[in-house]
Amino acid sequence: MPCPFPPPPTASLSRKLPCCPQQLSTKLRELLETTCRLANTLKRHGVCRGDRVAIYMPASPLSVAAMLACARIGAVHSVVFAGFSAVSLTGRINDAKCKVVITVNQALRGGRVLELKRIVDEAVKHCPSVQHVMVAHRTDRKVYMGDLDIPLEQAMAKEEPVCAPESMGSEDILFLLYTSGSTGKPKGLVHTQAGYLLYAALTHRLVFDYRPGDIFGCVADIGWITGHSYVVYGPLCNGATSVLFESTPVYPDPGRYWETVQRLKITQFYGAPTAVRLLLKYGDSWVKQHDRSSLRTLGSVGEPINQEAWEWLYNVVGDRRCTVVDTWWQTETGGICISPRPSEEGAEIIPAMAMRPFFGIVPVLMDEQVSPLLVPCPAHCTFPASAAPSLGNVVEGGDVSGALCLSQAWPGMARTIFGDHQRFLDAYFKAYPGYYFTGDGAYRTPEGYYQITGRMDDVINISGHRVGTAEIEDALVSVAPQPGSWALRCGVVIERPAGVSSLLSRPPVHRLTTLRCRRRPSSATPTTSREKVGVPHERTPYASHTFALLPAAFAFIVLKEDAVDADAVMNELRSAVATKIAKYAVPDHILVVKRLPKTRSGKVMRRLLRKIITDKAQDLGDTTTLEDPSVVTEILSAYHKYKDKQAAGP
């Protein structure tokens, strides 16, 4: 597909190495030659149009070339984050039936050496489809080379730097990308050629106000959709200089991001709220010691950003002069769907809110499905049947909440789940027929702006009020600490009655509670926040003519300082939620932990927290995507102590 915005001759890739004084730069001409050599190498070793190729590499110009080489010959790349275990890699290779794996001998991340070749060797023992493993060298360390292995640099050196691109149809597959597994079994989502490229290029140019000559700094790994769309395809399609970030936000020190901004004169910075909250606790000095005058736009991606993190980005990092865009989108959408920009010049931006749909995105809010575990209203109830909530209807107007759906197709959307189209239909189109169900809840303001309130699986109905974990977390983390006192990060999850997986499920009735019947009040106005879980909770019924055993909230909090009065902390937290939302939203359980279980992309694996509090820790499922699996043992120990204390009574 021709690039809609011709690249300037100076466009390049800039790769940030772990040692701060060093960097590598690659011009587009050099990238093209590397891509063609690699493409010819793949063809020589039997890779044809439609074949799948797994890429298990750190962020580097060569890994970008590997993606583009696959695209050039019509092969389908499947990039796997270079931090996943052999088990995770095996599952993704086998699901895609990859013919070739491209990797490196070692990777460097945050001062650590990752033995990627050794992990690949272990994985391919169980991958019958793999015919070759192409091994590049990130370090000088020699590694074992077996019968399947091909030294990549040597093989590329023998090939011509020219490779005619394969002619592809607009709906041919461009790549597969597996979800991180934070919500269960990873899905191999399929993105196609023309629509994805167009959408990535347009959103990159318009959301971030990209201008020729800008230096675009997205610090996501290429193993995630953010890296695909806003490190590789979007920026390169626009001829931009794109920064590849190989390290971590705090290595060798918490000023790493801002030193990079100063040295490379980055104009747009795009990162995750998780990283922002991590850096926030180190204070402002690490930011202010570096020149950030080149910055024009700051963006957040991956989850709703809380108010405190947004304000820190705007006030400290951006010196109150940079546009801050809180972007909402998904692996499934291919690119940004809701964001404060583009908009009319000078249009308002509300902190911590995604706000405006992108061109072609038509969001709708839908009534929730019936709450699970329902029983009929008793005979003496006088409410008419029409008082029951309607299900699956579009919620009109402003100041309303509901399930966030998209009502029409857009170019960047995923087309299917590889090898399992029925799962694709069931996951995204079954809950609300005729609409794409995002899985998220949202609030629409009276002005028509959208605010994401969290995953629908992490939403509770209490006394008829729909409360997202995100808004409870925001209330928790927004508690203003007194000088010298505590502040926190938190995670909230929802512990549901047995057999209930989400608000959209309708399991057989098996646990009932007789409660006072009342009408369902209007939804509470949400705000944004972070992680939370729920537990079975006996409160008022979901709606008239129904009774329900409802879930309740379980908050895990991480204190910034150990020397605090725990009881005072809990009381202040409960008071904050009651004040900012309502008393019904106060978490029923609050547990102090040292860390939260996060994937390597920074997402909290709430399903693990939910497994722990529902006594299903013996069946945690796939935990190989965790940044540090030992965190599960830590949280289990804290939870058991909490349970024992609760059982012992006051």
Automatic annotation (TrEMBL):
Gene Ontology molecular-function annotations: acetate-CoA ligase activity; ATP binding
Keywords attached to this entry: ATP-binding, Ligase, Lipid metabolism, Nucleotide-binding
Top-level division of the source organism's lineage: Eukaryota
Signal peptide bounds: none
GO process annotations (BP): acetyl-CoA biosynthetic process; lipid metabolic process
GO cellular component: mitochondrion
PROSITE patterns reported in the protein's UniProt record: AMP_BINDING
Annotated AMP-dependent synthetase/ligase domain residues: 29-368
EC numbers: 6.2.1.1
Name of the protein described by the UniProt record: acetate--CoA ligase
Lineage: Eukaryota, Metazoa, Chordata, Craniata, Vertebrata
